[in-house]
TrEMBL record:
The lineage of its organism: Bacteria, Pseudomonadati, Planctomycetota, Planctomycetia, Pirellulales. One of its GO terms (biological process) is ATP synthesis coupled electron transport. This is Cytochrome c oxidase subunit 2. It comes from Blastopirellula marina DSM 3645. Belongs to the cytochrome c oxidase subunit 2 family. One of its GO terms (cellular component) is plasma membrane. InterPro entries: CcO_II, CcO_II-like_C, Cupredoxin, Cyt_c-like_dom, Cyt_c-like_dom_sf, Cyt_c_oxidase_su2, Cyt_c_oxidase_su2_TM_dom, Cyt_c_oxidase_su2_TM_sf. Residues 3-99 form the Cytochrome oxidase subunit II transmembrane region profile domain. Its main location: membrane. Subunits I and II form the functional core of the enzyme complex. Electrons originating in cytochrome c are transferred via heme a and Cu(A) to the binuclear center formed by heme a3 and Cu(B). It is a multi-pass membrane protein. Its cofactor is Cu cation. It is an enzyme of class 7 (translocase).
Length: 325
């Protein structure tokens, strides 16, 4: 099935088991609020028209207290609040209590990119999940407060530095057919907590596969160097490791210098020195990004030790940067 479930009057496509509960509660609160708004404003307009001041009609004595009326407008809305609370709490507990057999994906947020790590060691910069299976997300942040928000799932949870958060989802529709993401119409994934300069660009896609297609994609993603050239691997790592969030490939300026036409050219640094970008320069910039900071930029790039990027990975990234010249 394609992900085209109706999201109702106010929301986009709904593609999770508890999305209808969220939409129903919102609709209930909205229409009850609209009813009372129309009722109160209507009565107010009626009284204004009926009792406006005119010749021969002076102020009339009026009661100062009515126990029945005051009890009614205090107690009856309280029943509605109880209904809202029960529905909201029930939905909240369902969204916060993943099944024991849920598939686990680690979500690493950082300025300004996402990294999704799967149980077999595969990684991706976009989220890939199977349809009809509970998926538990273990959320963390490497720097500042972020928030993973998938409108189609009606899920939203903070990624907090120094601790783990969790949320889960079970998709009910696929976003396309086959293993190739290009054959899918994915959902959007946003950061919903302001996290700095490129917050608005901290965007990813969510692909929902049939079980067999997901397993095939997962196997392919875990064997990054199989069937791909070094340039292709470098491009994947450029996106997956977050380079894309700070370094453009089209010449536009971001938090870091663009990679376009950068290999083999001289770069001036904040200390007044300069050097030509070659393989050693790229390696040093990844392992010790504060050793040479390009003039006009701040030293905000994190360190990538060998546990996060192997020497082979750095070689692939260098080949990708070369290809942009």
């Amino acid at each position: 099935m394609l992900a085209d479930a109706d999201g109702g009057l106010f929301f986009g496509p709904a593609n999770s088991t508890f999305a209808p509960m969220v939409d129903d509660l919102f609709d209930l609160i909205y229409w009850i609020s609209a009813f009372f708004f129309v009722l109160i404003v209507g009565v107010m307009v009626y009284f204004v028209l009926k009792y406006y001041r005119r010749p021969g009609h002076g102020p009339q004595p009026s009661p100062t207290h009515n126990n029945t009326l005051e009890i009614a407008w205090s107690v009856l809305p309280s029943f509605l609040l109880v209904v809202f609370f029960v529905m909201g709490f029930t939905n909240y507990m369902s969204m916060r209590t993943p099944p024991d057999d849920a598939y686990e994906i680690h979500v690493q947020a950082k300025k300004w990119s996402w990294l999704f790590v799967y149980p077999n060691g595969a990684e991706s910069s976009d989220l890939h999940i199977p349809v009809g299976r509970p998926v538990r997300f273990i959320l963390e942040s490497e720097d500042v407060l972020h928030n993973m928000f998938v409108p189609a799932f009606r899920t939203k949870m903070d990624c907090v530095p120094g601790r783990y958060n969790e949320i889960w989802v079970q998709a009910v529709n696929t976003t396309g057919t086959g293993v190739n993401p290009d054959d899918h119409k994915p959902h959007d994934l946003f950061c919903a907590e302001y996290c700095g300069r490129d917050h608005s660009n901290m965007h990813a896609f969510v692909y929902v596969y049939e079980t067999g297609d997901f397993d095939a994609w997962l196997e392919k993603a875990s064997n990054l160097y199989e069937g791909n050239t070094m340039v292709q691997v470098g491009e994947i790592l450029y996106k997956r490791k977050g380079c894309i969030s700070c370094h453009s490939i089209d010449g536009t300026k971001k938090a870091g210098p663009s990679f376009k036409d950068s290999f083999g050219t001289a770069h001036k640094f904040t200390d007044g020195t300069e050097a030509v970008m070659d393989e050693n320069y790229i390696r040093e910039s990844i392992r010790d990004p504060r050793a040479k900071v390009v003039a006009g930029y701040q030293p905000v790039m994190p360190v990538f030790p060998s546990s996060r990027l192997s020497d082979k990975d750095i070689t692939a990234i260098a080949e990708f940067i070369k290809s942009l010249k």
